[in-house]
User: Fold this.
Amino acid sequence: MARVLIAGCGKLGNRLGQNLAAEGHDVFGIRRDGSKIEAPIQPIEADLFAPLPELPSDLDYVYYIVSAKTYNDLAYYKAYVLGLKHVIEALKGQTIKRLFFVSSSSVFGQSDGESVTEESLAEAKNFSSRRLLEGEEIAHNSPFPATVIRFGGIYGPGRTYLIDMVLQGKANCMEDVYSNRIHSEDCVGMLEHLMQVTNPEPLYIGVDNESALTCDVYEWLAEQLSVASVTHREPTENSRMQRSNKRLSNAKITATGYQFKYPSYREGYGEMLEKMS
Assistant:
């Protein structure tokens, strides 16, 4: 059994830690408020944005799962750069088998419906993608083998923004624009699975099996909720350039044997709607 550290025990980190502990692994979690770390994860109450106290010894795997609380450069610097630097510094002298760094598919700047793989160009087009890519580089240049996971749009229990927008009649979509998503349970499943993969790749895209037209997703939700159809808009050239529009491939992670619990938005949102009714 392994000794695992999860830096950033929010919803994903807590869920991952519980799953790993249930398998018999020794799991530690870092969070500013240790009372929010769920048993049987062993809490370490610390601020990732300040130098860390001494960490447990003989760790095997480390997950860095931190997100920015607000959309500004300082918040992204703290979440994806400063916190990671502090974790790596605190781990000096340990022999870590693998550092997993959770990033975002937003670093892919494609906007014309292209098919995108791990080999596709990522660009620092704005402060958020610049900080994410900076964090990825720090992870890969650390003393430990590292794997970056770029998740698409995460949805699931507690992440009901799109359902709420459709219910309130506020949802509108641009025609012919693709979107990519992943259920939070599959985020956790991927992270858990990668710990079992021998010599994982340096980078994986984390999305489900279906890049879907945004309007198709909205219309499907409207039908399931028995509400009026959503508004469709013809995108302007400017809005197309600013809006993400790409088809992300999950071929690399599925090639490792991972099977998605929610292969498309229909299964994931369908279960959420059942539980709401």
